[in-house]
Task: structure prediction
Amino acid sequence: MIRPPRRHGTRDVYAKIPNPLRRLALRVLDALDLLVYALVGIAFIGAAVLALGYSLAHVLVNFGVALPLKGVVEDVLNFVSDLLLVLIIMEVLGTVRSYLERGDTSVKPFLFIGIISATRGILSIGARLSIQGTQLKLGDFQNSMVELAINAFVIIALGGTIRILGAAADLPEEAESEGSRTEVTAINERIVVETSIPAHASHGAHPAPDAIEPSPQT
Result:
């Protein structure tokens, strides 16, 4: 299931909150939420540029060019892992924003937190394996493979849970809007089917037998 877009408060949303303290807190959190996500997006672009630079430099090293690349992979992966930690914190903050706006919370942010946490675990294991390389002992390698398998299973299980729960994992308003969109889609499909012209109609098909009036008997 595709995650619904994050909604920041509008004037109509703020106007529906009678408590002025909750309204002010939501405005501040919305502004900070947008700022942090913008900074995280820029940071991810920087991480992608660093990873691309490392890949190009690694190619040069393979051709015999001496470049100081020791520890670069670990630094980049740790940077991405830290950014994912920021996303986890922002997901938790999203539950606070939801409570201030609607007075209730959804289970879906916690499912995404579990998925992001498992992804961070995979990144940390990948960094450790890439650094130690052939120096890794057999027991440590087996433990790393077990951790990778567990994290992958957690991602698949939580993703399947989100898919199974569907609208039940959303807030009441989101579930209602999702149901409305599904109903509208079904109505549109039915209209298209009912108004479609059969292929034989344009070739002058003969009328059905019931439509032929019986000739008067003589």
Q: What stands out?
A: The chain has six helices and no strands. The two ends are 70 Å apart (CA to CA).
